[in-house]
Design a protein that fits this description.
alpha+beta; 4 domains; 5-stranded mixed beta sheet; 19 strands
Length: about 675
């Protein structure tokens, strides 16, 4: 008879994946903690996500084992958490494991008291020990014995660690005034030092795209008029696009490259990566005036809309690395498979440009099969070669559609969909046109219908008609930025009005006015409240909020939003002083707050031509707004009343140049700065 545990009633695909394990899993919640206290057992907390490769490995090896399940069910209360569904829970216990071991990752394995205080942890554990790594079964036995024989001592460790987590959660505290210009300069220099001159990117293997980093340097290349910085970013963007981290057949980026050359990926595809990279490549195309970044934007769009879209227009979260239980199987090719589909010059080009060989370049260590090739571009093809490869690519994609696709996590997250709206809006801002506008507004319509409360604040997760009731900073800040970006490309004042309302609610809900910064979650039942001060694969909620507030203040002339942005940035200042390269999105917020208050104010009917002109001149310092009688800025409302024809005002603060009514004059004004 098939096992069924309490996870069968959950919504998360990750939790449902474990609903038939023999382990008596419970979801995060009061019922689990009540049971742990009643039975006086420690809790084994296992945190992961549905497309996590090593989470699948640990499930197959340990959680599907009847023998392991007997130990867990006898000695522990076992709780499963989807880190994407509860990032606030994950953040607390990831901090604990990093404090205990110096490293973290997923699956995250943490043993905690019935009060939720951690005392031991790690990441992936093999079922049996070896090569200096303890086995999962041995660890379970040792922890159970320690709890039985030395419970008071274990409780003491847990209490001490919980106190450390609370302090870490409050973030770094600075000694004095923040020096923004010095921090911006230091951040630029530190990132430039980490630049890989040979392969592009920053640092060594494994290599993550981390889009905030090259985007910050791209904007610095403009403000500093630095061709050197621009070339770093161009090289990085080109290297990622040519590498195996980019799906050369179906578009979109994998999560990271396991090597330093971007050649072989870890095959998960995440919405948050692709959403941010869409915006980055759109802006890179504007900065370089080259066409290839727009091709990458189009490839990401094709991937998102074809493979991640759910009914109604929202975007699912991710696709798995594995297919049929084998990492990368959906994406790799043998030389024979490629040869069987090739015509004319195609096979020669596949070998010469895509690097197809008999030996291959990838092997899943758990299912070693020789001869698998991850396609990557060794050089830039000529125009004629690209035409040939494009025709071949269509045939390869058709063949690939017949394979078993990787698993898809179709839950819709407000924060990640907000990133996608911002990505599409940037594609519009930098010349992508109405096609991308429709995509952005379609996603917004989905969020408004399914994930927003009546007061306009976002919940976190929706799946199959069910949404949660979380209040997370990443959702509030991400949706705030999305509304600002939607306004700039549609000129609809309603988006800006919604942004003003949401900004006030965000500060009311999350700001720590005494300690500084914004809390990541409104949940005060956790053992510690945390504040993000690090931009990883996803930018921190504090950095996103700071940038959005800085832009909102400029667009509305409401100083309170700029003041709020500076309060957050002052709190982030100590992190920026010590490791500025750790906070690239925060650095972009400082850049925005410090640069001249350049605005393009468009008034009157049919201003689309002016938006196209603005897209053709790379001015990342320029924010765009549409003037109307209901605009939040009194100054801009005044401009709206001055004209009945399409008019562009190029302004710095409340000082505007003479109004412009034709495209050529606007282009000249933008170029002259």
């Amino acid at each position: 008879m098939k096992n069924t545990n309490a996870l069968a009633e959950e919504v998360s695909p990750y939790l449902l994946q474990h609903s038939h394990n023999p382990v008596d899993w419970m979801p995060w919640g009061d019922a689990a903690w009540r049971r742990a206290k009643a039975e006086n057992k420690p809790v084994f907390l296992s945190i992961g996500y549905s497309t996590c490769h090593w989470c699948h490995v640990m499930e197959r090896e340990s959680f599907e084992s009847e023998d392991v399940a007997k130990v867990l069910n006898r000695d522990f209360i076992s709780v499963k958490v989807d880190r994407e569904e509860r990032p606030d829970v994950d953040r607390v216990y990831m901090t604990a494991v990093q404090a205990m071991t110096g490293q973290g990752g997923w699956p995250l394995s943490v043993w905690v008291t019935p009060e939720g205080k951690p005392f031991y942890g790690g990441t992936y554990f093999p079922p049996m020990g070896g090569q200096g790594k303890p086995g999962f079964v041995d660890v379970l036995g040792q922890i159970a014995a320690a709890w039985r024989e030395r419970e008071g001592e274990v409780q003491g460790w847990a209490e001490e660690l919980a106190g450390r987590i609370r302090l870490l959660g409050e973030g770094m505290r600075g000694p004095g005034e923040v020096e923004p210009e010095k921090i911006l300069r230091m951040g630029t220099e530190e990132m430039a030092m980490e630049y890989d001159r040979k392969h592009g990117g920053f640092g060594g293997a494994p290599k993550f795209p981390r889009p905030s980093q090259p985007l910050f340097l791209l904007r610095r290349s403009y403000s500093e008029k630095s061709e050197k910085l621009l070339e770093m970013v161009r090289h990085t963007g080109r290297a990622m696009r040519m590498g195996g981290i980019y799906d050369q057949i179906g578009g979109g980026f994998h999560r990271y490259a396991v090597d330093g050359e971007w050649a072989v990926p870890h095959f998960e595809k995440m919405l948050y990566d692709n959403a941010q990279l869409m915006g980055f490549y759109a802006e890179l195309g504007a900065a370089t005036a080259e066409g290839w970044p727009e091709e990458v934007v189009a490839g990401i769009d094709e991937y998102l809309w074809r493979d991640l879209r759910v009914e109604g227009g929202g975007l699912g979260s991710a696709e798995d690395a594995d297919s049929e239980g084998v990492e990368g199987k959906f994406y790799v090719w043998t030389k024979k498979e490629v040869g069987d589909l090739a015509e004319g010059e195609e096979m020669r080009l596949a070998e010469e440009i895509w690097g197809v060989t008999e030996a291959g370049n990838f092997m899943d260590p758990h299912h070693p099969v020789a001869g698998w090739n991850v396609l990557a571009s060794r050089r830039v093809p000529t125009m004629e070669e690209e035409k040939i490869l494009h025709r071949f690519r269509v045939r390869l994609e058709k063949r690939r559609k017949g394979r078993v696709r990787p698993g898809k996590d179709d839950k819709v997250l407000a924060s990640w969909n907000a990133m996608a709206i911002t990505g599409y809006a940037k594609a519009v801002r930098w010349g992508g046109g109405i096609h991308y506008t429709k995509r952005a507004e379609k996603i917004w319509d989905f969020l408004e219908k399914n994930l927003l409360r009546p007061d306009g604040t976002p919940t976190h997760r929706w799946r199959g008609g069910q949404r949660d009731d979380s209040h997370l900073l990443e959702d509030y800040a991400g949706v705030l930025q999305a509304l600002i970006d939607l306004h700039q490309v549609t000129l609809k004042v309603e988006y800006l009005q919604r942004a003003v309302g949401l900004a006030g609610k965000m500060l009311e809900k999350f700001e720590d006015r005494s300690g500084g910064g914004l809390w990541s979650s409104a949940d005060e039942t956790l053992i510690a409240r945390m504040k993000d001060d690090y931009d990883g694969a996803e930018p921190s909620g504090n950095a996103v909020a700071a940038l959005a507030l800085a832009e909102l203040g400029r667009l509305t002339d409401q100083v309170k939003w700029n003041d709020a942005a500076r309060r957050i940035l002052d709190w982030l200042g100590e992190r920026m002083r010590k490791v500025p390269q750790a906070v690239p999105h925060g650095l972009m917020a400082w850049q925005r707050e410090r640069e001249r208050r350049a605005r393009l104010v468009l008034a009157g009917p049919e201003c689309e031509v002016f938006l196209k002109v603005a897209a053709g001149v790379y001015r990342p310092d320029l924010l765009i707004t549409g003037a109307g009688e209901d605009h939040p800025s009194e100054f801009i409302r005044g401009l709206a009343g001055r004209t009945k024809i399409s008019t562009a005002y190029l302004c710095e603060g409340e000082n505007c140049r003479l109004p412009v009514t034709n495209a050529a004059d606007l282009k000249d004004a933008l170029i002259k700065g």
